[in-house]
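Researcher: I'm comparing several assemblies side by side, and this is the next one on my list. It has 499 residues spread over two chains. Same procedure as the others: predict the full complex and return the structure.
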Amino acid sequence: MPDALRDEPPAGAGPDAPPDTTAAAPPAAPPIAAPADSGHPARRPSWLHAALWSLVVLTAGVALGGAGYRLEHRYLIPAPRVERTAAGLRIEAQAGHELTGVALDGTRLLWQDGASIEYLDTRKAKILLLGPGAGMRTTWEPAVSDRFAVWFEAERQVSLAARMVVYDTVSGRRRTLGDVGSVRSFPALSGDLAVWCSAVRLGRPRILGARVGGGGQLIPMADGDGAPVVSGGLVAWAAGWTGPFYAEEVASGTRWPVTASLTDGRLTGLALSGRTLVWGQESKESGSGVVAAVDVDGGSQQTVASGITGLVGPSFDGSTVVWAEKTTHGTRVMARRLGGPAVEVSRWPGAITGVAVSGASVAWIERDQGVWYTIEVRSLPR
Amino acid sequence: MSPPFRVRRTLPRPSETRDRLLLLLLIELWVLNVADLALTRYGMWLGFATESNGVMEYFLRAGTLPALLFKVGIVSLGALLLWRLRAYVVATVAAALMAFVFAAVVAYQVFWVLSLR
């Protein structure tokens, strides 16, 4: 017991007080609160001392909580390191962390880090861990729009009951929208309309949609497999790894095949903005890839780039197509505004595994010869 | 033959200053308890937190008001019990320990909520 918490007995009532031999009345019984034992000098009851000691307890608790939080986030949940560079922003993953599925919309950057879904507002340069939620161990590549981010998560990769999770970048809320069944494609997002392919009923894959800003009621579209993309109320998808393409207006349910000249190569990426569909296709045998664009309502097909090897992407934001391709000394990120010339954005001696473009910004994932992943965010060259 | 079981009896040691400390600790504990519920509810509303305590989860499922009534009620009851036992040093030690742990939990939650912004 600290001395500060010992009470001082009334004057004359302590053990060291001389006996009063002059008093006629019998001596008063010692007060209860006067056990000034062990010879310490006693003190008066003090609110100040009590408040100070309670503050010490409170401060010690706050210090423990703060230290626990810091230790947990430094050693148990290590997030990638964010660094502002002269060219833009660099996000460096920890050793052994695999970054995939970069998505960009305005200042909202989203990616998959192993099984984690990480989000960064490029203005704040602070990483937020969005998923997976409690009990979930698997996630799929996320998508982001001007307000929302969506991804799937499940207890395991082969789960028949993955669930869709949405994060509202304005309110900061994360909501689970419901089961999507067995996942067959990554989600795509435009505004609050998410589209994907999954088999809600066993063995029956379907193109599905949901308004993530609302209750997330499923909007059934076409039967069969596909990797859909969305822009506004228009959805397009490739029915297989080599096409063909289909489009559907969500509001009316009108569906039609998109006329496009496709090669026999495997599709490397599909992007839709407005009514322009952009895709990449590369044949392993010929080793020559092509990036092309077409109006979903028909019209002439435009070749954005051809003769490409090691094609990654493309990504398209309505005005600029961005992709990555192999060079003799590594890889490079290329950009081309529709109707304009192709320009080189960056070179990298290692591999580039993902690209994304939005407005004046472009983001890509670099992987060096080992297992180090970095996301670069830069401004598009004028 | 085993030795006889001996009970060590703690003697009451009343102290007015310690009473004051106990009162302050119990008030802190009560406030931290409400803050813990508020921060937990906010974390759950944000969709990032889940309640691990099965009993509290049951009440939180029923709503914020039942959870508040249960949590505040149970802590108030414990605080009253400790206050009745204020003559014993161990009551103050127990209150200090609980206030310490609650302060750590609430501080952790505050740091976490701030990290989301």
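Model: For your comparison table: The two ends of chain B are 66 Å apart (CA to CA).
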